[in-house]
């Protein structure tokens, strides 16, 4: 038994924030029915340059981007611009527990697929709208993109090398964090709404915005300003209040050294062959190291460059000095702890529809919240889903296909 194995999700979202949310729900056991445009599908199916390919023919199938956010779903191609398509979606919504959509403000109202319309046929429905700026406020009509939100929401002001140093300036995160965090917050809100529905029998509407999430996720950086009226600045890989707490180069990579107290600094000094640092008035305490940051960082760097990454980490771990490698993605999945935790899975891949069929094993990153890391159902399973959910026979399905509805 999985936590949400009695829950049905109608997924009207595409790209990343919405699909990340519904993927989380699928990982928890929900049946997720993903609606895609006939003949095209989710835009991200074609977001290369990395694609799944047939191992025998080399035929290109879905993009790796699409596969990252659509694990465990069942896809249905439906043209919601048609009356038949709208009826199918309303009938599916009448059976669903959750609807997730990320259309522009009011984009689904003209199809009768907005919350007010669907709540009339299913008062228990939990409906989550994901937009860039929310349903209210002066920016509500704008389209929202992760990169723009990272800039507007302050993340880029505290990410990147310090101004005045080589490479200094604002920098976006290497992952679309505003999208991913919005997907996570949406999942949390939906789970809360499910609990509320268990007590009241009523569904509810959730207004989730990327900018809201990004501002909330500034965390301590926000409180530095709100409490102390100090505007945080970029620190690169350094820390505003602790030294040394940053990355250092080695002969074959980079290592993070995260000294949290003066005792750990003493152990670091011993390992690097400089016990005198422990009593040097410039370095003995963190307060003094903050005042002489450039000097101690340069001195540590001179020593770390002489060591290999693995050798330095092993030596520091023996001395209980917090440290770790800056791994490339291949090293992440080769890490024995990552492997022991089952964070990579190999699953059969099922795909039908407009793209070539690929039935080869597929490697994916696993969900940390999944009770059962079973195989995903990816691709277009139009007939199967509509037969199961709506009882449509082959003649009805053929008629819908002939009119381009599915």
Please, could you describe this protein's structure?
- Helix content is 37%, strand content 15%.
- The chain has 406 residues and is an alpha/beta fold.
- It has 2 domains: 8-217 and 339-402, Rossmann fold, CATH 3.40.50.10540; 245-249 and 254-325, formyl-coa transferase, domain 3.
- A 6-stranded parallel beta sheet has the order 5-2-1-6-7-8, with helices on both faces. The chain has a 3-stranded antiparallel beta sheet with strand order 9-10-11, covered by helices on one side. Strands 3-4 form a two-stranded antiparallel sheet.
- Helix 1 links the parallel strand 1 and strand 2.
Quick structural summary:
With 406 residues, the chain is of the alpha/beta class. The chain is built from 16 helices and 13 strands.
- Into how many domains do the coordinates divide? 2
From the N-terminal CA to the C-terminal CA, the straight-line distance is 33 Å
CATH homologous superfamily name of the largest domain? Crotonobetainyl-coa:carnitine coa-transferase, domain 1
Q: Mean pLDDT, rounded to whole units?
A: 92
Assembly classification: single chain
> Could you give the order of the helices and strands?
EHEEEHEHEHEHHEHHEEHHHHEHHEEHH
Show unreliable segments.
none
Kindly provide the name of the CATH class of the largest domain.
Alpha Beta
Helix content: 25-40%
What is the molecular shape?
A: elongated
């Amino acid at each position: 038994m999985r936590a949400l194995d009695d829950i049905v999700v109608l997924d009207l979202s595409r790209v990343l924030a919405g699909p990340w949310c519904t993927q989380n729900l699928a990982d928890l056991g929900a049946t997720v029915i993903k609606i895609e445009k006939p003949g095209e599908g989710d835009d991200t199916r074609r977001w290369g340059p990395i694609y799944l390919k047939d191992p025998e023919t080399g035929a290109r199938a879905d993009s790796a981007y699409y596969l990252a956010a659509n694990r465990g779903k069942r896809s249905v191609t439906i043209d919601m611009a048609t009356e038949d398509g709208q009826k199918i979606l309303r009938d599916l919504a009448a059976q669903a527990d959750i609807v997730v959509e990320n259309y522009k403000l009011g984009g689904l109202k003209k199809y009768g697929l907005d919350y007010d319309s669907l709540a009339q046929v299913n008062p228990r429905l939990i409906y989550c709208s994901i937009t860039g700026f929310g349903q209210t406020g002066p920016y509500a009509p704008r389209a929202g993109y992760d990169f723009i939100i990272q800039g507007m929401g302050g993340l880029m002001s505290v990410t990147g090398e310090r101004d005045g140093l080589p490479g200094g300036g604002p920098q976006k995160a290497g992952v679309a964090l505003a999208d991913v965090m919005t997907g996570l917050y949406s999942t949390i809100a939906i789970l809360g709404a499910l609990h509320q529905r268990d007590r009241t029998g009523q569904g509810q509407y959730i207004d989730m915005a990327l900018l809201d999430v990004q501002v909330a996720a500034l965390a301590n950086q926000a409180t530095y300003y709100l409490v102390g009226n100090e505007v945080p600045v970029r620190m690169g890989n350094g820390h505003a209040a602790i030294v040394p707490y940053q990355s250092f180069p080695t002969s074959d990579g980079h290592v993070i050294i995260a000294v949290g107290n003066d005792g750990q600094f003493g152990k670091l000094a011993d390992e690097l062959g400089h016990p005198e640092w422990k009593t040097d008035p410039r370095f003995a305490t963190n307060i003094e190291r903050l005042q002489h940051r450039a000097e101690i960082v340069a001195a540590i760097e001179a020593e770390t460059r002489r060591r290999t990454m693995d050798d330095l980490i092993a030596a520091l771990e023996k001395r209980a000095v917090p440290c770790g490698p800056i791994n490339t993605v291949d090293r992440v999945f080769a890490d024995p702890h990552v492997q022991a935790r089952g964070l990579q899975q190999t699953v059969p891949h099922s795909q039908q529809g407009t793209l070539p069929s690929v039935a080869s094993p597929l490697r994916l990153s696993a969900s940390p919240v999944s009770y059962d890391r079973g195989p995903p159902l990816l691709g277009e399973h139009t007939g199967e889903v509509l037969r199961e959910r709506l009882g449509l026979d082959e003649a009805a399905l053929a008629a819908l296909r002939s009119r381009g509805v599915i």
